[in-house]
Design goal:
The complex is a heterodimer of chains A (254) and B (235). Chain A has 254 residues and is of the alpha/beta class. Helix content of chain A is 41%, strand content 25%. In chain A, strand 4 (66-71) and strand 5 (74-75) form a beta hairpin. In chain A, helix 4 packs across helix 5 (121-134). Chain A is globular, with a radius of gyration of 18 Å.
């Protein structure tokens, strides 16, 4: 593991030759992806193309069958310890927020620092308050998730992930479950993070966001990465008819 | 008339039996609750042998009569050297039997917790144990309160079966008194009344607990003061 860290000093995430199948259906085919520290990647593509599966493999929510994934030099194996290690470095935000409904906003944020990082409760709550201020939800810390709008819930989910002080953030369609008028507040929060230099991989269909934030847009179809380019290049010079048809669909729907 | 006085004189004996019924029911219920949760967790364990063993246990206990299980514990185990008092045997039988049913309820409760909750906890670096303890079980417990509470009402009546292993509970006492006084109708009517007086408060207690939990979630609606009186709200 040390050797890898030295070899890929600038890489936050390395995915090499990864294959993944659900039963007989292959959902990832020979995926190669290197993400440098501080790099912001937007992953897009038609539904069922493997985007979500790819980022879920990066924190071990899904096991990959072939190839190698490492985060900050820690290689993911089937050993649960490596998963825990990687998950301490990788925050994830889900489409459906997945806040703990039985805990307050503050408790949602403080749980993992207390249990996984063994942080004293007072310190964890201070940390939680810090990130809740950051996502502009300080006044809501004693509420339960059901009190909050979808946009607020998603911002809590972002704060909750940040409380682990992750080195990489994964976003799995963070705005797809939101009412249109709530999308902006969540995107602005993610944008703020991006500006601070957080390494991130974001699966989204928000192409405006991709243009504004991404260092690189990765296009997936049928489990393969078929294009990977800076947004200027991706949006203006993409030759592939598949990409153009995808873009016209997404743009039209916005 | 003298009939009434005679019956009144028997009441203390019946109430003593009722005390035994309450003791055996409550003790068995609490033990079954604990064992049921452990078995329910085992039913969802990651290791196949653990899952299979728990499943086999549940199938066996649900697939054979409680009466037979009690007979086995009280009359067969002594051949293996394990001699239990009627109370111990009764509690053991009820516990082992109820735990199997409770395990299924706990398993279903755990299965009813959305997959996203498991994924959120996992992605936030909780170990499997922490995930179950702080995220999944608290949510599952709330889901299972109505069915688990139902068992509390049922166990008072099912405990009547322990009378067959000579435990001097309400049922046993009633039978003895009935056959010694020949006042079958009156005695069994009293026994029935006492059982009702036991199970009715139990049912009410479960209802109260459910309502309280409902209120708790209602209090999580947009305004936390919602549970207080509307007059306070208006001010």
């Amino acid at each position: 593991m040390k050797r890898d860290a030295m070899l890929n000093l600038d890489d936050a995430v390395t995915v090499e030759g990864v294959d993944k199948s659900f039963g007989s259906v292959q959902v990832l085919r020979n995926i190669d992806l290197r993400v440098k520290k501080g790099e912001r990647i937007v992953i897009c593509g038609p539904s069922g193309s493997g985007k979500s599966t790819l980022i879920r493999c990066i924190n071990g929510l899904e096991d990959h069958q072939k190839g190698r994934i490492s985060v900050n030099g820690h290689v993911l194996t089937h050993d649960p310890k490596t998963k825990l290690q990687v998950r301490q470095d990788v925050g994830m935000v889900f489409q459906h927020f997945n806040l703990y409904p039985h805990l307050t906003v503050l408790e949602n944020c403080a749980l993992s620092p207390i249990k996984a990082l063994k942080m004293p409760k007072a310190e964890a709550e201070e940390l939680a308050r810090h990130y809740l201020r950051k996502v502009k939800l300080s006044e809501h810390e004693h509420k339960y998730p059901v009190h909050l709008s979808g946009g607020q819930q998603q911002r809590v989910a972002i704060a909750r992930a940040l409380c682990m002080r992750p080195k990489v953030m994964l976003f799995d369609e963070p705005t797809s479950a939101l009412d249109p008028e709530l999308v902006r507040e969540v995107l602005e929060t993610i944008l703020g993070l991006a500006k601070e230099g957080m390494t991130m991989l974001c699966v989204t269909h928000e192409m405006g966001f991709a243009k504004a934030v991404a260092d690189r847009v990765v296009f997936m179809e049928d489990g393969e990465i078929t294009a990977s380019a800076p947004p200027a290049e991706f949006f203006h010079a993409s030759q592939s008819p598949r990409i153009q048809s995808f873009l016209s669909h997404v743009m039209a729907s916005v | 008339m003298s009939n009434f006085n005679e019956l009144a004189a028997l009441l203390p004996t019946l109430l003593e039996g009722a005390g035994v019924t309450v003791a055996v029911s409550v003790v068995s219920y609490l033990l079954a609750l604990f064992l049921g949760l452990v078995l329910g967790l085992a039913r969802t364990a990651r290791l196949l042998p653990v899952r299979a063993a728990a499943a086999a246990y549940v199938q066996f206990m649900r697939g054979t009569p409680l009466l037979l299980q009690l007979f086995f514990i009280y009359y067969v185990l002594p051949y293996g050297g394990l001699i239990l008092s009627p109370f111990q045997a009764g509690v053991l039988g009820l516990t082992l039997n109820y735990a199997a049913y409770m395990a299924e309820v706990f398993r279903a409760g755990i299965a009813a917790v959305p997959k996203g909750q498991f994924e959120a906890g996992a992605s936030l670096a909780l170990t499997h144990r922490q995930l179950m303890a702080y995220v999944v079980i608290p949510q599952a417990l709330k889901i299972v309160v109505p069915p688990i509470g139902n068992f509390f009402v049922a166990i008072f009546k099912d405990s009547a079966l322990v009378s067959v292993i000579t435990m001097k509970d309400l049922m046993f006492t009633g039978q003895i008194l009935a056959s010694s006084t020949f006042m079958h109708f009156q005695i069994f009517a009293m026994v029935a009344a006492i059982y009702l007086m036991l199970s009715y408060p139990a049912a009410k207690a479960v209802e109260w607990l459910e309502r309280r939990l409902d209120k708790q979630s209602a209090a999580r609606a947009p305004n936390r003061r919602e549970s207080s009186s509307p007059l306070v709200e208006a001010s």
